[in-house]
Amino acid sequence: MTQALSTLFSRTWIWSFIAAASVFLVTIVFTGGASTVGLAQAALTFGAFSVLVGLGQMLVITLGPGNIDLSVPANMTLAATVSLKVMNVENSMILTGLVVAIGVGVAIGIGNYALIKLLRIPPIIATLSMSFIVQSTAIWTNRGLRIKPPSWLADFTTSSTAGIPNVALVALVLSVIVWYVINRTVYGRSIAAIGQSIRAARMAGIPIDGTRLITYLLCAVLASLCGYLLASFSGGAALNMGTEYLLMSIAVVVIGGTAVAGGNSNVPGIWGASLFMFLVVSMLNTYGFGAGIRLILTGLIIIAVIMLPTTRSAGKT
């Protein structure tokens, strides 16, 4: 029993769930238990959107230092705007809108890696530059309009199945797929190898460029899908709808236990971190704190998580 507990607590992802459970209990105690079910469903719903963008960002970060996608917020906005315009509130166009949203993600993913590979621009600069282009395109496409999603899609994203929000179920299915890809496929082993040592991976014959291209594509597609679902859930696309997900997509990856230096990813931890971040925001709102305090706290949490392994290593020497 002791060994099992020791093994469990040695897994980095378990701590994000412990943190989420702790904040959940504190919030429930403070509210007298009146909002237990509602808070749990809200955490699963809004946490699911963070999971979707976090999965993609996790794949990119696993490639190693310097790899990060800063175009996620603009990607979400453009995919949501274009897909809603294509669907034009018609239920018969839901699948077409989904295909369009995925197509936007594919185009942005290719554009990101084209800047990185062909122009040899660092990923941070390349994806930041792409975000300006994409956001400008979204502004031009949106033109101040807020198109509503088709009624069937709106009902799906705001409803639950067996008490679990549908968007959380979608995120769960995609999480299982990503976990399988990372742990059971050649591609998953390839991104881990590249993250650990790109030179060794090249000597081992791993297709570096192809693997990195696929990774940036997957990140962009997951962000586009998140934008598609978020716009349907919130009743339309807004030009600032993806803003908070830039920091969030990085925070849930780091807090969830994925190695910042690359070479190691953690899917379960993203769920724990996403729930934790939402519950922290809810608790701060309950106590009357504003967005500024939330951002400061998020930054401090990320710094603490990054410094913790360093502190442990120093203590062992």
UniProtKB/TrEMBL annotation:
It is found in: Cell membrane. The keyword Membrane applies. Keywords: Cell membrane, Membrane, Transmembrane, Transmembrane helix. The chain crosses the membrane at residues 12-30, 42-63, 93-116, 123-142, 162-182, 213-233, 245-263, 270-287, 293-311. It is a multi-pass membrane protein. It comes from the Bacteria. InterPro entries: ABC_transp_permease. The keyword Transmembrane applies. This is ABC transporter permease.
